[in-house]
Please model this.
Amino acid sequence: MFTTFQLYCTGMIFILIWGLLLWAHYHGGVSSHHILADKDLPEISNWWGGLLLPLLTFFLLHRMKKRIMINKNQESQKSTIPVAIIYGFLSALIYGILLSVFFTLGYSDIPAYMLIGAFLLALFFPIYKAEYILGFVIGMTFTFGVVLPTGVGSILALIGAFLYLCIRTVMLYVISRLLFFRVSKR
Model:
């Protein structure tokens, strides 16, 4: 059941990204972005997004499917997509769209604060999971293409995994020990 959903989503993303690229081609040309916004570094064309985004979508949906199957103990019954995955995808999608809108409107400080704020969010939410990365990349695709958001999303995912799995765990342990000692003193 999820495999069919995965193929439909990948096909829909394929159609949408190629529609966006063709529209850009006939309305002024497909843009390119310099690596790290440095004119001395090579440019990456947004045409690469036509290949990268469908592959990324298929891969990340496959990761979600594996996680759902592990959580369901590979039951053969029809499974629905967990609400946490839907909320994670939608929240990251909105986050990416807002970041893009603020950047487009010229508020360059707000996107910088939003990226730093993602590290704070990583202490409370597992932003390293596939649904968050996919939502973030799709949300930023119209403004930045696919390659740049994929790179930024990958870096955020790596740092987010460290913060959520390591730092958060240590913080929760320390807090629980402090609360335990506080209660045991009474």
Notes: The two ends are 55 Å apart (CA to CA). The longest strand covers residues 32-34. The helical segments are 2-26, 49-71, 83-104, 109-121, 130-144, 147-184.
